[in-house]
Specification:
The chain contains five helices and eight strands, in the order H-H-H-H-E-E-E-E-H-E-E-E-E. Strands 1-2-3-4 form a four-stranded antiparallel sheet. A four-stranded antiparallel sheet has the order 5-6-7-8. By secondary structure, the chain is of the alpha+beta class. Strand 6 and strand 7 (177-184) form a beta hairpin. The protein has helices at residues 17-28, 33-42, 47-62, 69-77, 147-153; strands at residues 82-88, 91-99, 106-112, 118-125, 158-160, 167-174, 177-184, 187-193. Helix 1 (17-28) packs antiparallel against helix 2 and helix 1 packs across helix 3. The longest helix is centred in the first third of the chain and has 16 residues, at 47-62.
């Protein structure tokens, strides 16, 4: 794999952080093919290598010998950068964070139950990293914000069913206009904005 200077090298073994990032980009390309292609090139990977990474990831996910999602992330991404306890309602879970070199201001977060079952897996803002200023639909640029950030900025929001397991959608009103934001792995991809009704 040819690499540009300064790009991270994958962890030893058949699949590492670089391969995982290629999997993320494969899903994001459905919405933002241009951004995803630029990011793939920064990783120094070809389309064929991306397809192979996605194929290997799917094989790991579907393998009957799989040790579970949390063990899979640990084997692919290595030890988490940070682990903390989090309470959601009456349940306590473990929040694990891994760096994602393509997005230095973000972390890949996995929420896991005490038995190791994974409840959620997506990109979040890194602790201490500045988030975007979100005041109007025009501020909602692709890859600029996470689900939590958009939900806080434009509360109240209405979660909608995503079109795939790795996708989320939020409906809300901003600047008097109805909006629907699309996310892949928790990162904003695009926003559809309805035109305000014309005065009678």
């Amino acid at each position: 794999m040819t690499r540009t200077p300064g790009t991270p090298h994958p962890a030893p073994g058949p699949f590492g952080p670089t391969g995982f990032q290629l999997v993320l980009l494969r899903r994001m390309a459905d919405f933002q093919p241009g951004l995803a292609e630029e990011a793939r090139m920064r990783l120094g990977a070809s389309l064929a290598e991306q397809r192979e990474a996605n194929k290997r990831w799917q094989a790991m996910v579907r393998s009957p010998r799989s040790r579970g999602a949390l063990a899979r992330y640990r084997s692919v991404l290595g030890p988490p950068e940070a682990v903390s306890s989090r309470t959601i309602g009456d349940l306590t879970c473990e929040a694990l964070l891994w760096p994602v070199p393509l997005w230095p201001g973000l972390r890949f977060e996995v929420l896991a139950a005490p038995d190791g079952a994974v409840w959620n897996e997506w990109l979040v803002r890194a602790p201490g990293a500045p988030g975007p200023v979100l005041e109007s639909p025009e501020d909602l640029l692709p890859w600029s914000a996470t689900v939590d950030e958009v939900a806080r900025a434009f509360a109240p929001v209405r979660p909608m069913e995503g079109t795939a397991p790795t996708r989320w959608r939020l409906a809300f009103t901003a600047s008097g206009r109805a909006c629907v934001a699309e996310f892949t792995y928790g990162l904003l991809q695009e926003v559809s904005v309805a035109e305000p009704p014309r005065p009678a």
